[in-house]
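Quick review question:
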C-alpha cells in the first residue's frame, strides 16, 4: 500500500475542509485544523501530567486520565467529522 503524502491528502479533501479522514482518524490539512489540533494535543498531555501528579494511586490516575481523554477525543472527532 502506497504511503499518502500531505499534498495528496490536501488534493483529495473537499474545498474548505479543515481535516481529512485517514484510517479511522482525522488529520488537519488547513491552518484552522491545526489551530484546533494543537490545543487538543496539549490538553491530552496536560490531562496525563495532572493525572499522575494529583493521584495517590495508579487507579486514581487512570480514573482521571481516561474520562478526560475519551471526552476530548469524542469532541475532537465530532468537530473533525463536521469540518472534513
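Suggested answer, residue by residue:
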Amino acid at each position: 500500500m502506497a504511503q499518502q503524502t500531505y499534498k495528496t491528502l490536501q488534493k483529495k479533501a473537499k474545498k474548505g475542509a479543515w481535516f481529512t479522514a485517514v484510517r479511522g482518524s482525522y488529520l488537519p490539512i488547513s491552518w484552522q485544523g491545526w489551530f484546533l489540533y494543537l490545543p487538543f494535543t496539549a490538553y491530552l498531555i496536560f490531562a496525563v501530567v495532572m493525572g499522575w501528579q494529583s493521584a495517590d494511586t495508579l487507579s486514581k490516575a487512570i480514573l482521571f486520565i481516561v474520562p478526560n481523554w475519551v471526552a476530548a477525543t469524542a469532541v475532537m472527532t465530532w468537530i473533525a467529522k463536521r469540518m472534513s
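Why it works: Residues 20 and 26 are 5 Å apart (CA to CA). The two ends are 23 Å apart (CA to CA).
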